[in-house]
Amino acid sequence: MPRLHMHVTDAAEAPLRVALHELRGRLEIPDHFPPTAQAEAESAARAPRIPAADGAVATEHTLEDATDLPLFTLDPPGSLDLDQAMYLSRRPGRGSSGAKAGGGYRVHYAIADVASFVTPGGALDAEAHHRVTTLYFPDERVPLYPYALSEGAASLLPDRDRPAVLWQLDLDADGALAGVRVRRALVRSRAKLDYAGVQRILDDGTAEEPLALLREIGLLREELEVARGAISLNVPEQEIVEEEGCYRLEYRAPLPAYGWNAQISLLTGMAAAELMLASGTGILRTLPTAPDGSVARLRLTARALGVDWPHHTSYAALIRALDPRRPAHAAFLQECTALLRGAGYTAFDGTAPPAHEALHAAVAAPYAHATAPLRRLVDRYTSELCLAASAGAEPPSWVRGALAALPREMELGTQRANQVERACVDLVEAALLRDRIGEVFEGLVVEIQETDPTHGTVHLVDPAVIGPVEAAPEGPALPLGRRIPVRLTEAEPGHRPIRFTAA
Questions:
Q1: What is the pLDDT of residues 325-351, one digit of tens each?
Q2: Of 2, 92, 238, 255, which has the fewest CB atoms closer than 10 Å, so is most exposed?
Q3: Verdict on whether the full-model pTM lies above 0.85
Q4: 299 - beta bridge partners?
């Protein structure tokens, strides 16, 4: 999970564009695809090669036709790389309609079928293994696949027939998974929706049932999440906004619809993990349990931020009680992402790993990345493994052959994405604070170095900035978990990130 999401409003974008372009150059981020990879993508966009169950190549005309499903997508405005589309309905059963009556629910979840456009061992496949993930900058993104696919032929754009990996997830009346089926199919999304629009019609009661069920199912899945002790971080987005000719940073809390949509993706990832574990071949997203010392340090941070954390309240329960619209809670949620460090991938072929090694501690269950193949390399492999497991067949040889190397590839790709994220935060914060060197701010010491308690990290109360801080010369060590005045001593975008000294 990214530690910090950043978004640049249109007004603030222009003055930062040059600096962000220079940053991409310094980090050696590719600005184009190799000609052979680009040519493969354009050819595949015209004529996808859809893998058939018997290992042959099918066509769109021989795919199961599921275009009658009125699927819809839900993404940020302007997004064109649409990985998922869904259709939600009630399952037939006795009793009146309602969350606890009848036969439960059916979730149809279509995932972009990237394997129909990428030839294993080809130039495009090699470039995808080099890039690993889509990289996000505040002003633009660097895609995993060329736009001809990621925003074109492979994307589940509305009113276009698309090959997809179609999940059918049957839930009982409490929202628990009761059955799963995965198959290839031809689908057609009917509508491209965004979170604000969906939240508005859900709140005013005008949503039709397939969309109204997003809230109903999402809330049930959240209840199940609480029951199993999972951790769901509602991390706010850091937004750069213009106000009277000046720029400032503030936090923007995600809408509830965002969380309900995430529950559908999470449900699919958990179902994928169970399918692969049952088959004995797969790749999981895993996370060890956080050490007690990390939780103890967070308690100090909570105290400094004025976040009430009773000793009888678990970490998971506290997180759910926080309001990301409140600045102190938003700051604390940012610090809570530290407990998610250490996530990795566990691949297996022939024997499933023991339960404790298959667990994702934040999900509190086995989990796999399965729903974003246009933006993350491993999801293409997860789709193929789950298709095979659902059909009781052996996975394709090209999938098995890649399994051993995938965890390390994903680790390196994730490190690169984190490097990009940190560099973007450094650049943007330095750009917005460069004219405020020497000013004193109120800050919260949220971390100190174990080997040198005179150096640590401070979270400003205002603006929404996190940066390195050092104790004053000849002064005492930094007080972890306390508010102190800090002076901005450095802020040079592209050269020196922001730095504070205890005042």
A1: 777 787 788 778 777 778 899 999 999
A2: 92
A3: yes
A4: none
